[in-house]
Structures are given as C-alpha cells and as structure tokens.
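Ligand: magnesium ion. Inputs:
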Amino acid sequence: EKKSQENQQFEENLDGLRFVQFHFSDPTGGLHYMEESIDNVPGILKSGVGVDGSSVIGFGQVEKSDIILFPERSSFSRFVVEGEEIGMYWCHVLTPELEKHPNDPRNVLQLVIDKAAKMGFECEMFSELEFYVLDEKTRKPVDNARYLSPPPLDKCSRLRYDFGHAYEKAGLKVKRIHHELGPGQNEVELQLTPVMKNCDDSMIAIWLAQLISSKYNWVVDFTPKPFPEIPGNGLHQHIRLKDIKTKENVMAAKEGGLSKIALQFIAGMLKYSRDITAVFGNDPNTYDRLKPGYEAPIYATWDYSNRSALVRIPAIGKGDLSKTRVEFRGGDASGSIHLLCAMILAAGLKGIEENLECPKNTIGDVAHLTEQELKDLKIEILPTSLPESLKILEESKFIAEFIDPSLKTFMNQNGLQKMKK
Ligand code: GLN
Ligand code: MG
Ligand code: MG
Ligand code: MG
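Predicted complex:
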C-alpha cells in the first residue's frame, strides 16, 4: 500500500502557489500547521514532515518528542490567508516509528470511521457553530440584535458576508450564516459532508472567522458560556448514516420517519451521553452552558423539534427522505471537534451493535421533570462539572475502547490544570 501511495500521480493543482500548509490538530482542538516552500512539497507527500511534538500541547506525553505529519492527499484545498493564496493539506500525526499517534484526534476519529465501515456504514455530519462577536477592547457584544434580526439592529451582516465568501473560496460547503438569539451571537451552519471533512472544515471555519473578525477590530468567541445570563454557544452536530455500498440513507424508514438503525443510533447516543460529554467537555466552561433555560440540554432525552432535548430529530420539510438525520445538541467548541464527532459516532454505532431498544421520546420541556420522573423514565443526567467528567473519563469502559491511555492521561492533566485557573 505504501508503494502505491508513492507512485500516485501528483495531481493536486499547485499552479502558482509559493507556500503549502500542512495542518494538524492537537487534542484540545487547537489548530497548527507547518508551512513549506513549494519545492519541498513532493518530498513531504511521499514521506511526511517531522516537527517538534514536545512544543505542541498534547503530544509531549511519549518519550520521543518528534512527530511526523503525514498529509492526506484528498484533503487538499487552496485559499487566501493574509493576502496570500496558499495550498493546504490536513495531516495524520505519526510517531517516529510511523505508527498513528494515539493523541491525534484525527487518528481517533479515523478508527471510529473504520469501525463504521466494517459495520457497512458511511457517516456524514454537519456542524452548527455558535459564537459571540465582541469588541476587541471592551469585550462586549457588538450589537443588541436577536435571532434573525435584520440590520441596522444587527451589526454583523457585513462580517457574515465576508465569512461566506472566504469559506466558499476555501472549499467549505456552507448552508447558512445567521444572527442567533444572544446579543452579537451568530452561527455558521455547514452542509452534510463525510465526518472527517466536516471536522476539518469546522476548524478552518473557526480559524477564518478569527482572522476576518480581527480586520473589524472584533473578536469571535466560541467558548460554551461566555456570559452567565445570556445564551451559550453550542456546537450541534447533525448526523446521517449511509449504506457504504448503495449510498442510501439508512436512518430513513421506507414509509417515512426513523428507521430501526436510526432509533438504535439514538439509543446509543443517549446511553453513552455522559461518556461523550466527558471527552469533549475537558473545560469547566462546558458545564456552565449545560444549564436549564437556554436551549442547552441537561438530560439525555430525545424528541422531535424539541430544543431542550439532547437529541433532536429535525423536521425534514416535504418528506425528502434523504434528509432524515439526527441532531446531537450536547457539544460545544471548547475542545476537539474531531473527538466530539468520534465519540458521537462511536456511541451511535454501539447502539446498533448492542441492538439497543430506543426509549420513548420525552415530550415537552424536560428541564421541569422531577427527580422521581427522571428515575421512572430511566433518564441519564449529563455531568454537571468537570471533576464529575474526569471521573467518568477514568472509569468508562466505553471511553477506554476508543481513547488510548496516553490521551486519557493528557486529558486528565489538562482538565486539572484548567480547574486551577
Ligand atoms: N445556544 C443554544 C445552545 O447552547 C442553541 C440555540 C439554538 O440553536 N436553537 O446549544
Ligand atoms: Mg442552526
Ligand atoms: Mg443555533
Ligand atoms: Mg441545532
């Protein structure tokens, strides 16, 4: 297989480019890249490029600090950064022995994608990325607009157009960008793409948003709960499973509604919701968002078009069955998007594997359920603090199946450090 990769034609369009960036992600979701002169690119496509892992958060755990970035040819894109058109590849992080580094979130996601393929599924997702637009100096929201308010109340419309154009040029597929409920709060919604590309694209979307907003002397804040009394920033994921051979949407029942596979996938997400949360929520701020009253979930329930549920089944308009999908509303952008999606997919697949029975959908605002009702309905309560999540991280068999001890150790230390701040 190595050989055939080497013999692959150099087919990406590098015409006119002077620099190419080799991107990778650390386990806290931070974006990094090594930039290379164009002459160096053919060599790197063959054998990767070594960088100092001990200077990047999350890769200093193993004795040897060299890490190797190995580019994925299919991830190539070109776009304009700081006025320069550049080429870009996403990389898998390898150890010096050329093994997949267990702390690389893209490697974790790849393992789960491989598992899905063995079960006969291909997974697509799209992110809804919420963020506040703040004045760089005052750190206050730049407007007082609400959900879908037009200008002049909404002061972010020019910024959103700039995002849209930049995203299109970078090859990101955008569904919509709109003002959200909070003052200065906005949202980018991408389109369904293979799950790895969705995660890569989400990280580029956040990065370009940071670059573009700085031109306005504004900052974009994606933290889960930047202000206590106004809505938090979710990172909802929409998920669709397809048959790997026929490419049919296996979440849609033939007669409409959800298929058995979809219901099992939902059951898996609910059963392992505490574990999913413990992995993506490695920051105390995650738990400030998961409170009642702000359209963020606190219990592991599901329902149709119910925004207090952890899993929501979006209405699909005039019955286009290919659109049938499920939405996981628990996530946020405080950590790695790749790890978030890896855990969502892993949990859903477990539901199918374990042939789980899906509990009944819980109708109404579940924030008002009593303790007895929660017990009777066997509803899991999402973790309410980082210490609680660190304990789950330590004890969960589900997490241990997908997250290597070296990554777990890092997350534990990272979490403890964040608690001190
Ligand atoms: N901001 C909410 C959250 O924290 C979501 C609001 C919405 O998209 N309806 O998840
Ligand atoms: Mg949305
Ligand atoms: Mg939203
Ligand atoms: Mg949503």
